[in-house]
Amino acid sequence: MENLAFWAIVGATTLATILLLARCLLTVPPSDLPDETAMSSDMKVYRDQLAELDRDIDRGILSKDDGDRARVEISRRLLEADKTAQARKAGAETPTGLTRATMGIIAIALVAGSFGLYLTIGVPGAPDFGRAKRIALSEEMRQSRPSQDVAEAQMPVWAGPPQDAPADYLKLVEGLRTAVASRPNDPQGLDLLATHEAAIGNLVAARAAMGQLLDIKGETATANDYARHAELMINAAGGFVSPDAEAMLRRALEVAPNHALARFYTGLMFAQNQRPDLAFRLWRRLLEDGPTDAIWWPAIRDQIGDLAVLAGENYTPPAAPMPPVSGLSGPSDEDIEAASSLSGEERAEMIQSMITRLSDRLATEGGTPEEWARLVSVLGVVGDTQRATAIWAEAQTIFATHPEALETVRAAAKQAGIAQ
């Protein structure tokens, strides 16, 4: 019944619009000619003047020659008035066939265009939703999401590690699996297994290992642990934020309310559940606060324009940062001076500390391709090819859709002898 009422209103509105256009096209606009009453009065005056002229000639008031000249002038004025009257009458007649055809084309275009546009971008049959109804529908959609297991079951089965993954590295991963299977309560082993399974694209196994690690850590788990688990769950589900992943994000934000990665994925969850307003608020702050080299920063910048439109916001995202002119900066003067006074063992510890800081930052905040390349290079220099291979494999996953960025890291991997 509501459907019929809607189409009746649409039809009536369209018909009214067509009638208004028809009136404009088919009705002759007022002209600059004198109105009909004035023209009739003028013609009557001229006729009366002709009759009076004949009487004046008969009475001898005017000579015949003067009367003839006056008759010619009055007759001329009478003919002019008659022509004007005929012109107005002709202008008021029915429009030409061309005008009718134009009106028909406009009517067809108006009806076809309006209905075509609505059927393309509209939702025929959809009821009107106020704000409260939309929020309620969003919450219903959010509560009815499939679980993590169901979402993962809908994904393609893992096809195996990347073809260019080194055989030695894959052998090490297999050994790690065996070690964790024999020592399932080893936190370090589970942490490494989650990292390396994710690096070769085995996301479900990585998610499972991270889940075991959280069970072991219990109350000692950090915000990074929860956010990392949520990210693995989301990636394993093809980008879908399940209720299970949302629970992990919530735990991360309870521990660290400003955790950037957790806020990013929380915004993604809102966007997936018809709450662009909440997603926009989260992503806008992340985008403006940065850092611009975070792994999520370009993803937000690419999508926030469309999100702003859906949220009813007029927003222009900040410009993308200029790439560094000379790559990454090297160690500071203080670092060099400090390193020169250290023993060989102390210098190695300092280098390892710098590697750890960079590795941790890339894992939690992301970074530029140059930073990933630098980490791979440094690990190759210090002889830690196992970690270098893992970082290279992870970079291939992260920069899979950015060929130029991937080539930057690939060059470093070749230099380290872990890529062809």
From TrEMBL:
Keyword Iron-sulfur belongs to the record: no
Coiled-coil blocks: none
GO biological process annotation, one example: cytochrome complex assembly
InterPro entries: Cyt_c_biogenesis_CcmI, TPR-like_helical_dom_sf
Record keywords, A-Z: Cytochrome c-type biogenesis
Entry-linked NCBIfam families: cytochro_ccmI
Protein name per UniProt: C-type cytochrome biogenesis protein CcmI
Organism field: Aliiroseovarius halocynthiae
